[in-house]
Design goal:
Elements (H helix, E strand, L loop, with lengths): L2 H15 L14 H13 L4 H10 L1 H15 L7 H8 L10 H17 L13 H10 L6 H15 L4 H9 L8 E3 L7 H10 L2 E3 L15 H9 L3 H7 L4 H15 L9 H21 L9
Parallel strand pairs: 1-2
Length: about 300
């Protein structure tokens, strides 16, 4: 096994074992030896973007991981430009120019390599900075930006406190314009703040209480679930109150993310609604094509 195959297998194994949404969160994704191996190969080959492109085709895990790591390391510290980071990695000045053709070739190779590794990808193929965003999506937050981010988060936490699930539920419900008859959620939402919100919105709460739950004020609808818990009939309570319908919505969301996209590309709320509805329509069409046709046979 040569050096390229050795490092490729090591990085691919680290990616497969990780359960993080982007490569920037994988600890020790690239060893110093692996990084030095790639840098030496790029410099020896003349420092051209097309050599990155070749590397992504031959060793996708190694080169996707390498691009993500150098962006985290150099962006904001040595240069403010993504392509400047790539120049530095090739032993060239940060302000060296590349043609649009070279940049698009690299972007396509990066997307193809990421797909081979099963990494999440943005569906954007146009708009401002769509190629740069594909790299940043995997790199995450550059190390140079971490101190400022931590500082801002600390100020926010001291001023507003840390967010709780009771604060999340209004964010989910308030934008909805249709009346919601029932809300099913897990035990993490079994708080007075959540129940008070659902009562105000006229929603039936279907939230199983926690194991150590006690009764609330007399007549509160939650007490029925607590009674079922204490009498070991919580499973029957879930069935009677259609709690497991929640699983259908989770399955539908997973299906949407896999077939359409895990993200919305538009910023305006009305635009996002239209984008989501269009995605649902496409998804239903695709699923419908695969459904069997039933006919009674005499």
């Amino acid at each position: 096994m040569n050096g390229l195959d050795h490092f490729e297998n090591k990085v691919k194994e680290a990616i497969q074992k990780s359960e993080v949404p982007y490569l920037g969160l994988v600890d020790d994704l690239l060893t110093n030896d692996a990084r030095s191996f790639v840098e030496l190969a790029l410099i020896k080959s003349g420092g051209q973007l097309r050599n990155f492109e070749k590397g992504l085709k031959i060793a996708p895990a190694l080169f996707v991981g390498y691009i993500s790591s150098i962006l985290r390391l150099h962006l904001g510290a040595d240069t403010s430009a993504v392509y400047g980071c790539l120049n530095i990695a090739m032993g060239k000045p940060a302000d060296s120019n590349q043609t649009n053709e070279e940049r698009e070739g690299l972007w396509r190779a990066f997307r193809s390599a990421s797909q081979k590794l099963g990494l999440p990808l943005s569906s954007r193929h146009f708009g401002p900075n769509y190629m740069v965003d594909a790299y940043l999506e995997q790199a995450g937050i550059p190390e140079a930006g971490m101190p400022e981010l931590i500082k801002r988060m600390d100020i926010y936490a001291k001023k507003y406190g840390l967010p709780e699930l009771g604060d999340v539920l209004p964010t989910l419900l308030n934008p909805l314009r249709r009346k919601v008859k029932q809300v099913s959620a897990d035990g993490a939402y079994d708080t007075k703040k959540c129940h008070k919100l659902l009562k105000r919105r006229g929603c039936k709460p279907t939230i199983p209480p926690r194991k150590n739950a006690g009764y609330w004020e007399e007549g509160h609808p939650r007490n029925e679930a607590v009674s079922a818990l204490k009498s070991d009939e919580l499973k029957q309570w879930k069935q009677e109150n259609d709690y497991h319908q929640r699983s259908l919505s989770e399955t539908a969301m997973y299906r949407y993310k896999q077939l359409i996209s895990p993200k919305l590309s538009l910023r305006d709320y009305n635009g996002q609604v239209g984008e989501a509805l269009a995605g649902v329509k496409v998804m239903n069409k695709v699923i419908g094509l695969g459904m069997p046709i039933r006919q009674r046979v005499n």
